[in-house]
Specification:
Number of strands: 15
CATH architecture of one domain: 3-Layer(aba) Sandwich
Mean pLDDT: 95
Oligomer: single chain
Strand content: 15-25%
Helix content: 40-55%
CATH topology of one domain: Rossmann fold
Radius of gyration: 21 Å
Largest sheet: 6 strands, mixed
């Protein structure tokens, strides 16, 4: 069947998958959702014998129904190739009785590679399918990982430009160096004087500015998004939960049909929402444990039914989760109220206006699959240390938050189902915090001396993505206030605002 897409806020409906991918964000500020979540049409026992690429196709074909088999398989083949440092693309590592789904084996050593490697190919095919002649301008706000992964994906892709905004001082030094050394004449990076929410709000404002869109149109450009608000980012993420379950089955770790829980370190809610989609498609997943750091807006939401971003913004050692406005939660809100676009739009207006909203008890009941927890800095560091000392397994700070919350969940509920923990970044991306966790405070201050010391202590080789930026020249030095983001985009495109 042909699956169509509509805005969570009701302003647009009946779009094909390729049209939704091209637009990124709906005109009314809503996010695109499929008219229904499809069921897997291949038995799990069959999927268990497939490669990552084959499982990705069997998952994504059900959402991207206007792509031909040749088109979709071509996108998958280009995305999941030798840029990953393991043939499996994502590996499952067993440590302390849990299964860590390593999603960081791509070119930027973070889980965003899994979806952003394929997005440029989905987008260029979508442009061709829809007769788009304008140059596509990708805008992305990043809390650290999306920016580099998006630029790595789009760099040098004909017919595209990409502008990434990140919070100055709000990402790790490795994350910043990965972005500011990015090659490609079609790439631009801008540090904003603010936090990630300021960057994300600014990008959403640009998408909603019709006069700016007209200005770009006159100059041969049109906007799209690489953030997880784009359905072309969310759908590829669903595949790795299908893959994780299939691999556990293939490896004899579980029986066919056995329920498995999932813990995800969560900021913008896209990664855990993908797990929910996989569950709705028929993957036997149980509880979905939403792990927050000290910016625990999602923990509070699942605990109380009230989403309230009116609180201090805390900079932590897991910066990709330092988020107070979790955009993808809107998709779950939409589902939980029976796909009522007016209700969803009203709640999002409350969030935009007063910074908070409250869901009904009926909506909370719909979300019963989710369990929220949070871990502070000390608890996160302690888990990183204990896992390394007991198993020799090294994890980053975001995965540390997930592991800590996973332990909380088991202690509080007594749930003994097997657990998949999404491991979202290489420990070398946050080497200072990881080294301090396992070796104590007072470590080296130089970023690359820290990297080398972490490699020496752990016996794990420094990833190529980190080696590359040791001596790479800085190519991007733009900075601006949030109010000047449109001006920066226009100047980079060579069509400055009057």
């Amino acid at each position: 069947m042909n699956r169509t897409y509509q805005s969570t806020r009701g302003g647009e409906k009946g779009l094909t998958a390729s049209q939704a991918i091209l637009k990124g964000l709906a005109c009314d500020g809503g996010l695109f959702m499929p008219d229904s979540i499809p069921q897997l049409d291949v038995p799990m026992k069959t999927l268990a014998g497939m490669s990552y690429q084959e499982i990705a196709y069997e998952t994504m074909k059900l959402f991207l129904t206007d792509f031909t088999e040749e088109e979709l398989k071509g996108c998958i083949a280009k995305a999941y190739d030798s840029k990953f440092d393991t043939e499996e693309i994502a590996e499952l590592a067993k440590a302390d009785g849990d299964y860590y789904l390593e999603l960081y084996h791509g070119s930027t050593i973070a889980f965003k590679d899994m979806a952003l490697s394929i997005l440029p190919h989905l987008m260029t095919v979508s442009a061709k399918k829809n007769g788009v002649s304008n140059e596509i301008v990708i805008l992305a706000a990043t809390s650290g990982d999306t920016g580099k992964a998006a630029m790595a994906g789009f760099a040098g892709v004909p017919g595209t430009r990409i502008v990434v905004f990140y919070p100055k001082g709000g990402v790790s030094r490795v994350q910043e160096l990965q972005m500011v050394t990015q090659k490609g004449d079609n790439t631009a990076v801008v540090a904003i004087h603010g936090n990630f929410d300021d960057a994300q709000t600014g990008v959403k404002h640009i998408f909603g500015d019709s006069s700016f869109a007209d200005h770009l149109e006159k100059n041969g450009f049109q906007l799209s998004s690489a953030n997880s608000i784009n359905i072309g980012r969310l759908v590829p993420q669903v595949a790795y939960y299908v893959y994780a379950y299939a691999k556990l089955l293939e490896n004899g770790e579980i029986e066919d049909g056995e329920t498995v829980n999932v813990t995800v370190p969560t900021g913008n809610f896209g990664n855990i929402l993908a797990a929910y989609f996989a569950k709705k498609m028929g993957v036997p997943l149980g509880r979905l444990i939403c792990a927050s750091n000290e910016n625990k807006v999602l923990y509070d939401f699942f605990s109380t039914g009230v989403y309230d971003r009116n609180r201090p913004f805390i900079l932590t050692s897991s910066p990709s989760m330092d988020i107070l406005i979790s955009s993808n939660l809107e998709r779950l809100i939409y589902l939980s109220c029976g796909c009522d676009t007016e209700k969803t739009a009203a709640l999002m207006a409350n969030l935009s206006g007063g910074g908070k909203y409250e869901v009904t008890e009926e909506m909370r009941s719909y979300m019963a699959d989710f369990w929220g927890g949070f871990a502070g800095e000390g608890e996160t560091a302690a888990v990183i240390k204990s896992l390394f000392e007991s198993c020799g397994y090294l994890i980053d700070t975001h995965t540390g938050v997930a592991a800590a919350v996973c332990r909380q969940y088991k202690e509080k509920t007594g749930d003994s189902h097997k657990m998949i923990i999404a491991s979202t970044a290489s420990p070398f991306k946050f080497s200072g915090s990881v080294l301090e966790a396992i070796a104590g405070p007072g470590q080296e201050k130089d970023e690359f001396a820290i990297v080398d010391e972490l490699s020496r202590i752990s016996g794990v080789a420094v990833p190529a993505a980190v080696e590359e930026i040791r001596t790479a020249p800085v190519r991007h030095t733009r900075e601006c206030d949030p109010a000047d983001m449109e001006k920066q985009v226009a100047e980079f495109l060579g069509c400055p605002l009057a």
